[in-house]
């Protein structure tokens, strides 16, 4: 450890674990985007809130920027450290701190994996309902910092709805305890919601108090093959009217192709252009309603085939077809768009976007999937083998500008659930007005006066 700044940090916090090996710098200095070469100063792995505070105070004195780090499963470059920053990984702060049976809240350290949160809630007969495929590796702090959504937003909402309180070490090294689990609190600005989706630019989330709820009723999973793209919203409207939906997800034939190549089981003998996987409350009446809705959709020509799960194992197989998409595409390092519009605007936006991408990406393999029930669409563009990476990204950026313009026309967002980070920073103005961005910059200057907390992410100072 030759850098005098790190020597000073070690002297200040002799018990702090610091990593400087090249392999560690690469591992902790990047997220799933893989578009930037990681180049952090070092990796700090604090074990206590007090250590996090001391690190931030040292960073102010040393003039070293900080990149907070959770599971680094993000897709927007929010956890990238490419300019000599200190990565502060919360992976050692990964324990449940307490459970309140009256308030039905679970307090956890920010480095706790989402799946571990699920398991801890289950021990008390309750559930933390936010869920998505990266549950085993993403951290609750990262989920809060990006207001993560997932596959059951249609039923439970985003992460924001389940954060009763949190502790944030801001850019001054001060510990803010906000929310405090209160159901009602009209005593001014709610700083808890300010920290949610802040992407580490206001401070480091170190602890969270999460609301829990009753386990959902037994559910069934139904997979549907759709005749064409125009049928998608008609099927959604029919099922939402007849069933208590827990989830409603769609994906294309190209998505299915990649998941099957990754080891999933083929659902139908014939291939179809579009698919829907939906989960709904189960029971004798619900099964009858599901069958009636299915028959209606078939009769209208919207649905060509379908299957309803008859066991938990079959339900898991059907869900794998949707949840396995991101993993099956990882080896291609795809260019990703994660966008949203109001559900009522989805039909018009889908039609415009489908035409746009068909025109602009004729030579690329484009994989679509999304949370149609909450207006969220994921677009994954795969690079051809014979195309240089820089040319591929430049072409995708050109099209993303057009997509951002379409989103602006439909009052949508360039980031539904992955944050802005580095990837979407050029397009923030398509979602936020100049006045809003100016206010966000002002808020950041108050909580991070030196501009050291995850600089360059979300917007430039």
Automatic annotation (TrEMBL):
This is FAD-binding oxidoreductase. Belongs to the FAD-binding oxidoreductase/transferase type 4 family. GO terms for molecular function: FAD binding; oxidoreductase activity. Pfam families: FAD-oxidase_C, FAD_binding_4. Keywords: FAD, Flavoprotein, Oxidoreductase. Residues 36-215 form the FAD-binding PCMH-type domain. GO terms for biological process: respiratory electron transport chain.
């Amino acid at each position: 450890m030759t850098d005098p700044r790190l020597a000073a940090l070690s002297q200040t916090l002799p018990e702090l674990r610091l990593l400087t090996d090249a392999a560690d710098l690469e591992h902790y200095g990047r997220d799933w985007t893989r578009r930037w070469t990681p180049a952090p100063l070092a990796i700090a792995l604090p074990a206590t809130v007090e250590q996090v505070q001391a690190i931030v105070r040292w960073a102010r004195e040393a003039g070293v920027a900080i990149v907070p780090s959770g599971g680094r499963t993000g897709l927007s470059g929010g956890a990238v450290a490419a300019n000599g920053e200190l990565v502060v990984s919360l992976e050692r702060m990964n324990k449940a701190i307490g459970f309140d049976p009256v308030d039905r809240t679970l307090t956890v350290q920010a480095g706790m994996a989402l799946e571990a949160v699920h398991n801890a809630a289950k021990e008390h007969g309750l559930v933390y309902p936010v869920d998505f495929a990266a549950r085993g590796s993403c951290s609750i702090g990262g989920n809060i910092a990006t207001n993560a959504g997932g596959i059951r937003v249609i039923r439970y909402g985003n992460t924001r709805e389940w954060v009763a309180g949190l502790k944030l070490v801001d850019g001054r090294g001060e510990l803010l305890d906000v929310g405090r689990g209160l159901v009602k609190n009209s005593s001014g600005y709610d700083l808890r919601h300010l920290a949610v989706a802040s992407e580490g630019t206001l401070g480091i989330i170190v602890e969270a108090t999460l609301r829990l709820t009753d386990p959902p009723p037994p559910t069934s999973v139904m997979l549907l093959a759709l005749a064409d793209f125009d049928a998608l919203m008609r099927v959604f409207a029919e099922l939402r009217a007849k069933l208590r939906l827990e989830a409603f997800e769609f994906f294309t034939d190209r998505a299915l192709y990649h998941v099957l190549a990754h080891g999933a089981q083929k659902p139908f003998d014939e291939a179809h252009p579009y698919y829907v996987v939906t989960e709904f409350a189960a029971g004798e009446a619900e099964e009858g309603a599901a069958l009636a809705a299915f028959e209606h959709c078939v009769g209208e020509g919207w649905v060509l085939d379908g299957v309803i799960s008859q066991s938990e194992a079959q339900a898991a197989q059907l869900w794998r077809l949707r949840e396995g998409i991101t993993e099956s595409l990882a080896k291609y390092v795809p260019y990703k768009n994660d966008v949203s519009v109001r559900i009522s605007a989805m039909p018009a936006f889908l039609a415009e976007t489908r035409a746009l991408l068909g025109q602009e990406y004729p030579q690329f393999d484009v994989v679509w999937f999304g949370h149609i029930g909450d207006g969220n669409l994921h677009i994954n563009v795969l690079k051809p083998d014979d195309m240089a990476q820089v040319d591929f990204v430049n072409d995708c950026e050109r099209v993303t500008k057009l997509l951002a313009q379409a989103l602006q026309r439909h009052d949508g967002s360039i980031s539904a659930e992955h944050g802005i980070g580095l990837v979407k920073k050029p397009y923030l103005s398509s979602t936020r007005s100049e006045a809003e961005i100016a206010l966000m910059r002002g808020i950041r200057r108050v909580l991070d006066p030196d501009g050291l907390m995850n600089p360059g992410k979300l917007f430039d100072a």
